[in-house]
Amino acid sequence: MNTREGSSSDGGRPFGVYVHVPFCSVRCGYCDFNTYTADELGDGATRATYADSAIAEIRRSAARTGARAVETVFVGGGTPTQLAAHDLVRILGAIDEAWGLAPDVEVTTEANPDSVDPAMLATLRTGGFNRISFGVQSAVPHVLKVLDRTHDPERVPEAVRWAREAGFDQLSVDLIYGSPGESMDDWRRTVEHAISLEPDHVSAYALIVEAGTAFARKVSRGEVVMPDDDETADKYLLADTMLQGAGLGWYELSNWATGPAAQCRHNVLYWTGGEWLGIGPGAHSYLGGRRWWNVKHPAAYAQRLDAGESPEADGEDIDADAARLEDVMLRTRLRTGLDPQGLPPHAHLVEQGLLEPVEGHLVLTRKGRLLADHVVRELT
Amino acid sequence: MTPPTPTTNLPQPGSTPPELLRNFCIIAHIDHGKSTLADRMLQLTGVVDERAARAQYLDRMDIERERGITIKSQAVRMPFTKSDGDDVGTAYVLNMIDTPGHVDFTYEVSRSLEACEGAILLVDAAQGIEAQTLANLYLAMDADLHIIPVLNKIDLPGAQPEKYAAEIAGIIGGDPDDVLRVSAKTGQGVEALLNLIVDEVPAPTGDADGPPRALIFDSVYDTYRGVITYVRVFDGKLSHRDKIKMMSTGAVHEMLEVGVISPEPVKADHLGIGEVGYLITGVKEVRQSRVGDTVTANSRPAAEPLGGYAHPNPMVFSGLYPIDGDDFATLREALEKLQLNDAALIYEPESSGALGFGFRIGFLGLLHLEIVRERLEREFNLDLIATAPNVVYRVELEDGSVHTVTNPSEYPNAGKISKVFEPVVAATVLAPSEYIGTIMELCQARRGQLVAMDYLSEDRVEIRYTLPMGEIMFDFFDALKSRTKGYASLNYELSGEQAADLVKVDILLQGEIVDAFSAIVHRDNAYSYGVALAGKLKELIPRQQFEVPIQAAIGARVIARENIRAIRKDVLAKCYGGDISRKRKLLEKQKEGKKRMKMVGRVEVPQEAFIAALSTGDGPS
Question: How far lies A123's CA from each of A71, A81, A86, A119, B609, in Å?
Fold first, then answer.
């Protein structure tokens, strides 16, 4: 593997690459990410040609950034494992060729427990992937059904075992709580199930009704009823207690890990002012104080690259105020917390038990984590 | 359609013999086609050509357009050459005086009517006469105007001219066949109407040689010219060389210009008997040139003013507060500017524990309130909170003193009160007879007393009630409309006061009275009012960082309570990956939303909560 030291032009900011794979076998009703099923795609963009487009974009982008060592790569979606494993490996190879991967690079792919097999996992691992994040969401069939997830929860331990056998030591499980019809006990079972898989990392996100999704329409028609916020708060606290008990400590308010080494460095890079390039339709990039994003539809994306054009749709310059706002917004959510220097008055937040000083920083309390947006509004 | 009348050899302003003048107005309900008819007349008389005709020329302000009502009257001079009868070919001058069409402006209507000798009663042939039209018709009959009944929209498929002609004849007397039928839209019958106006409306009369007397029937502020005063001359003449005197105050003003509107201002040397036109005096506020006042010449003043001058008193009060306390000065300036053009608007600064600094503002009625508030928000870009409107109470205390209460928070302690008087209105409802039951039910629920009920025709009734004005403030008209599928019309006017068992209901948030939510209600309704408002506030006030008890109380006695639990979750626990812009924008939006909250003590209260306090009535919402 071609490795290189970080260049000096970046002010020492860590640099990562995100690759967006916009394919899914089924569209989940709640999801508002930029992803498509085969039926929705139309002409000019297929799973078979996607890797070529992505690689074309990577080569274009290398010219833009100059030499920089890539410290993290994250392949997300969509469902990355909808692509052939060798295509994912080819894409990683192109990234390495373009910039060079740092010696301790973290390379993550998301995976659907339904769409992996031992051979593909082995191909990924040998090809340089060293971290895998399984979209488990729930262990309870009726909850998975509400979420339109197709996988059989019984198959998850097997997929996890294959991943371990392929050599994936860093293994994360994604969960969703607060689905309609999910009882407290359902959620407890899901967290127990996740813990039993012995991951070194867990992400748990509350289900959000996103405008424009099929799920939002169901909610507005009254076909499904969202649980109230207090119950969702209780579920968060339950998960936090159970995960802590299993040796997974929170490091971001929706993310838990067995230790610093198990944290998702790619996400930490997002949250701490790192820079990254987003490859793929609709992917966002942040470099040199500017943020931009690609055209959303895979066909439009492929056409742009075929024509030798940039796939950028639009962007914005992040001025000092916006950068400051984002920094507080993101760092508030981290266990490393905020440097009190330069923060607006915040004694009341400490008095109200929302923030606590830890090693000279201000960190959300357990109660504060559930009210993080309020804290951010008070601090910005 | 006839070609426009030639403009040569026309009687000129100031020298028009009174026998060639006809002054009339149009009495009509909104949507019954008054503006269309006025447009058609302007076209037929050549004052406005068809291509240049702006639809509904007489309605000037945006708000008027949107609400479909005329707020300020105007007067247009139209030359008209008789096209039938013995005097065919004679050039006459018709002055059309437009009248405001809403219950809040009854006084202004009465002054406009006073300036005329005749009135066209314009009724939609598909809908029949409405309550406000009826009220204005009675005003016109009281003023001895000659009434020309006209059915409009006879081209509509749903028109029932026979039925409504009979109804009108039943009200004003005469033969249903004498009711003229027109279509303002197509122009059918409009020329005949103009001929009829000349034939039937009496020419003005007056003392040509006496000292001048002119009635102010409208007064409008113009940014460039100052106040433009619309007058009708009764005696003598007003010359542009005169200094004029306002007879109610004795104030003397320079005369800068006199003229007529046709349809743009045209200067004249003077205005003679019976003529209708405008004066410009350099006065900057309409309060200095009040509707109903008599103008005379300073050099040769009249001994007695024309009758009927009154100073309309505000009937409804509401507190207006800027959401952003820094806007207080802007609000003050805005009110000063509005007052230039609105003599009925009165205000004084007040402060509220809950809302900070604002103004208590007196209005002629609810529509007036809405218009003022909308203009403040629209023209001056202010975000305002209006407290629930209230009427004026007269409170007699045990010690014999009498107090006028325009703000519920100033209502004296129950222990000291000997008697309370509330204003009552004489209300008239016109509706199809099938709704009699539901209308009476509604009026009873609002503490109304039936005065009389008359059938206008086989299936339409006029129901008259005495109602406490405070009971029709919130949503009475909406409730009436929804219970009668929109068929009922309402008119009311202040008719006096009555003693009533009224109490003040306070709302407490976290144990503190929020003065802006206090209301004066009848003792029998206090409990349900308190329960409803507390319940509504619980829905509208978002959960806070701490628990917020809501109580409704009469004095120290709590009559309803609710509890807003402390918020436990306020976090979007979702991973947006690299889409941080989206997350930031969401945060910025949340912060904007927070800015629109009003801090009441420690509690963030959204604007909607204050608005909701207006609509806790029992009517369907």
Answer: 21, 12, 7, 6, 61
The two three-digit tokens of residue B615, written as one number: 């609509």
pLDDT above 90 coverage of chain B, percent? 56
Residues in chain B: 621
Of A91-105, B9-23, B292-306, B384-398, which gets the smallest average pLDDT? B9-23
The predicted model gives B349-369 an average pLDDT of 88
Q: Do A373 and B591 touch (CB under 8 A)?
A: no
Q: Which of B574, B577, B584 sits opposite A208 (nearest CB)?
A: B574
How crowded is residue B585: how many other Cβ atoms within 10 Å of its Cβ?
13
Strands B502-509, B548-554: pairing kind: antiparallel
* Residue in B572, B580, B581 nearest the CB of A270: B580
Please answer whether residues B423 and B447 qualify as being in contact, where contact means their C-beta atoms are separated by less than 8 angstroms: no
Q: Mutate which of A75, A230, A379 to disrupt the B interface (most B C-beta within 10 Å)?
A: A230
Nearest to B503, CA basis, from B490, B491, B519: B519
User: Which chain B residues are Cβ-neighbours of A276 within 8 angstroms?
Assistant: 578
CB contact under 8 A, B588 and A291: no
- Chain A within 8 Å of B51 (Cβ-Cβ)? no
Per-residue pLDDT tens digits for B390-404? 999 999 999 999 999
Residues of chain A found within 8 Å of residue B592, distances taken between Cβ atoms = none
The pLDDT, as a whole number, for residue B599 is: 84
DSSP state of B390: B
- The predicted pLDDT at position B101 comes to 59
Q: Average pLDDT, stretch B374-385? A: 89
Query: Picking from B207-221, B579-593, B606-620, which range would have the lowest pLDDT averaged per residue?
Result: B606-620
User: What does the pLDDT average to over B531-552?
Assistant: 93
A181 to each of A223, A226, B186, B486, how far by Cα in Å?
A: 11, 8, 63, 44
Residue B163 has pLDDT above 90, yes or no: yes
Cβ atoms A80, A109 nearer than 8 A: yes
Which residues on B lie below 8 Å from A325 (Cβ)?
A: 584, 587-588
Please tell me the distance from the alpha carbon of residue A256 to that of residue A172, in angstroms, as a whole number: 9
User: Mean pLDDT for chain A?
Assistant: 91
Average pLDDT score over chain B: 87
Q: Are B341 and B229 in contact (CB under 8 A)?
A: no
The span from the CA of A373 to the CA of A376, in Å, is 5
In DSSP terms, which residues pair with A276 in a beta bridge? A16, A286
pLDDT exceeds 60 at position B58: no
Q: How many CB pairs under 8 A join A and B?
A: 90
Phi-psi sector, B364: left (phi>0), alpha (psi -120 to 50), beta: alpha
- The lowest-confidence range among A84-88, A254-258, A328-332, B377-381 is B377-381
- Residue B107: in which H helix or E strand, if any? helix B106-114
This complex has an ipTM of 0.86
Q: Would you list which residues of chain A are within 8 Å, Cβ to Cβ, of chain B?
A: 18, 76, 203-206, 208, 229-230, 232-233, 236, 253-254, 267, 270, 276, 278, 283-286, 291, 293, 316, 322, 325-326, 329-330, 352, 369-374, 376-377, 380
Torsion of CA A192, A195, A196, A199, to 10 degrees: 160
Which range has the worst mean pLDDT, A128-142, B146-160, B384-398?
A: B384-398
Q: Give the containing element (helix H, strand E) for A242.
A: helix A229-245
Tell me the C-alpha distance between A226 and B361, whole Å: 45
Report the alpha-carbon distance of residue B54 to residue B177 in Å, rounded. 34
